[in-house]
Write a structure and sequence with these properties.
CATH superfamily of the largest domain: Bira Bifunctional Protein, Domain 2
Oligomer: single chain
Largest sheet: 9 strands, mixed
Helix content: 25-40%
Number of strands: 31
Shape: globular
CATH topology of the largest domain: BirA Bifunctional Protein, domain 2
Structural class: alpha+beta
Number of domains: 3
Number of helices: 15
CATH architecture of the largest domain: 2-Layer Sandwich
């Protein structure tokens, strides 16, 4: 492709709306343009890169037995109502009506459609197992689209769906995806970490996310390099060590003027934060059939609440922080609250499972400027629910061997879910077994965001000068730069361009009548991994300059050998990328407790 005819310009400055390094680089390099919040146009460079990512996904899915199909973006509301997710998913679902007033849905994902297809296509156990997948547009009405292609409203996803007759078959296909996703990451030039995760709106009990670790990631993860434990922070487990105490102290009410925070009251009382109790209040939404209810949660003072686990513990659909007047309405004072003296009929009381093991805590006395010391669970207060609702923290003992956890940030590139019969049961997706009995199909769901993968590659493979994409993702393998507008340089570059095209080399040819500085700066921005320069100097030295992007060690290749030399350079780039596949994590090699 000639740059003189190319659609899409480079930018010297990133657009003001670019809020991440990857979005800035992709915009400056002329890959993407934002149409509105969370909506992007993919210019020719990005389109070529996205197609390459899709081809890698396609090859890996085919390798584990996948069959590609295509399902609609627009769904009738009835199938989402049948599964129940029409009622469970909030404003992020794109709902609209056609001209006849029928409710429709813009696809967030396609479990309902697959379950519907199972009803028409699967009859017997002889037809199982199956694995189908597609690359299709999704829509999610994000409240705050951000991070460029990281969190958008419209996106393309590879989603695959496994269909099995039992849990053993589902587990086998889940393992195949687990290993395939690591291969996909390696082929994209990304080191992915598989972490346990919350199934969320997908349903099922087992799920993993494949994370690209980066300080700018939107997810928090708990990992331990020593034991291999890795989990999304929302579902991370850790060992809880209670403070030792020989005996229970008497309950004592003390005056603590102005000591409304854990740090202040601990210092005032001469104890550590581990010897205090913290109260956090939420209003729980329990659906249309039940009124909202105040939830009072108690954890040790040195810890924080895990809101997801609290929501699961109380079986709420959603939580929000309680307002001050909602707290005072039950007789508690913000900053001085505790379970002591609370009317249990006015709130749902939830204690972290460490609280009953923690003796002689300092807690609020439900009166401004007053606290209790020596409080003990069972004697001085109780809870309606005891559950692990504390959030894992940096340095917490991991659940395997007690080694310290490290809290890191990451971007979710892909996810896998064991759905089980969650959709088959509600939608009637069944098969007949060997005895003639009708049984539900076991389903798995597996997704990778194509645009998000490109953003992560851009985040990982860039420098101060622009993108530096791996050859598997780069829109072209080589950029040919001509530094002559006429004469021998121009003729040599033109001839080499046609020779490369005829040899099947993916080449971007900068034939523009602009200065060498502009050409090299644009080449750096666009991130094409290999560069070939034709100039009077190179011809004077016997051929063309060739090498890696921004390399100072460029080879001079004779014109007659230029095509062969460039092809060998491309092969070397792919060979180096292939080395990433040699020592990948696998399901069999994962830590015993961190991934199971």
């Amino acid at each position: 492709m000639r740059l003189s005819k190319f659609f899409g310009e480079t930018l010297r400055e990133a657009p003001s709306e670019s809020d991440s390094a990857s979005s800035q680089m992709l915009a400056r390099a002329g890959y993407v343009r934002q149409l509105a919040a969370g909506l992007y146009s993919y210019l020719p460079l990005a389109h070529r890169s996205l197609r390459k990512i899709e081809q890698i996904l396609r090859e890996e899915m085919d390798a584990i037995g996948g069959q590609e199909l295509c399902m609609p973006v627009v769904h009738p509301a009835e199938i989402w109502q049948e599964s129940g997710r029409w009622y469970d998913i909030g404003d992020e679902m794109g709902r609209f009506q056609d001209r006849k007033g029928r409710d429709l849905v813009l696809a967030l994902t396609h479990e309902e459609v697959v379950a519907t297809l199972c009803k028409s296509e699967i009859r017997s156990y002889r037809q199982l197992p199956q694995l189908v997948y597609h690359m299709q547009t999704k829509f999610r009405d994000e409240l705050r689209a951000r991070g460029g292609l990281i969190r958008v409203r419209e996106f393309v996803m590879k989603d695959s769906y496994s269909l099995d007759k039992d849990m053993e078959g589902l587990q086998s296909q889940y393992v195949a995806h687990y290993d395939a996703y690591h291969r996909i990451g390696a082929r994209l030039g990304l080191d992915l970490v598989a972490v346990k995760s919350d199934p969320g709106m997908m349903g099922g009990k087992t799920a993993h996310e494949f994370m690209y670790l980066t300080p700018v990631g939107e997810d928090s993860l708990a990992v331990c390099e020593e034991t291999g434990y890795a989990s999304n922070l929302d579902v991370a487990m850790f060992q809880k060590i209670p403070e030792s105490s020989d005996s229970q102290e008497p309950l004592t009410r003390i005056h603590t003027p102005g000591q409304s925070t854990i740090a202040k009251v601990a210092k005032f009382c001469g104890v550590s934060k581990r010897q205090t109790g913290k109260m956090v209040f939420f209003m729980g939404d329990f659906g249309l059939e039940h009124p909202p209810r105040l939830i009072a949660a108690c954890i040790r003072g040195d810890m924080e609440i895990n809101e997801l686990q609290l929501r699961y513990a109380v079986k709420a659909q959603a939580l929000r922080p309680a307002e001050a007047d909602e707290i005072t309405a039950i007789g508690c004072v913000p900053g001085y609250a505790s379970f002591c003296d609370i009317d249990p009929s006015k709130a749902l009381l939830v204690a972290d499972d460490l609280i009953p093991q923690s003796a002689n805590l300092v807690v609020g006395a439900n009166e401004k400027d007053w606290h209790y010391t020596g409080t003990n669970y069972g004697r001085d207060f109780t809870a309606d629910i005891i559950a692990p609702i504390a959030l894992a923290y940096d340095g917490a003992p991991d659940p395997i061997d007690g080694k310290p956890l490290r809290i890191v940030r990451g971007i979710e590139v892909g996810n896998i879910f064991q759905l089980g019969t969650r959709y088959s049961d509600t939608m009637g997706a069944t098969y007949t077994d060997e005895t003639g009995e009708e049984l539900p199909i076991f389903m798995g769901s597996y997704g990778i965001g194509v645009g998000r993968a490109l953003a992560c590659v851009a985040e990982e493979h860039s420098d101060d000068y622009g993108l530096d994409l791996p050859i598997s993702v780069a829109p072209y393998h080589v950029i040919l730069v001509s530094l002559g507008r006429s004469g021998d340089v121009h003729d040599a570059a033109e001839n080499l361009y046609f020779e490369l095209l005829n040899s099947g080399v993916e080449v971007l040819y900068d034939d523009r009548p602009v200065s060498p500085g502009v050409k090299f700066a644009d080449a750096d921005l666009r991130g094409i991994p290999l560069r070939c320069t034709v100039s009077s100097r190179s011809l004077g030295r016997g051929g063309v300059e060739f090498g890696r992007r921004r390399s100072k060690d460029l080879d001079i290749i004779p014109l007659d050998d230029a095509v062969k030399g460039i092809q060998e350079g491309i092969t070397q780039c792919f060979r180096k990328l292939q080395q990433r596949l040699e020592h990948l994590p696998t399901w069999a090699s994962r830590s015993k407790d961190s991934q199971s």
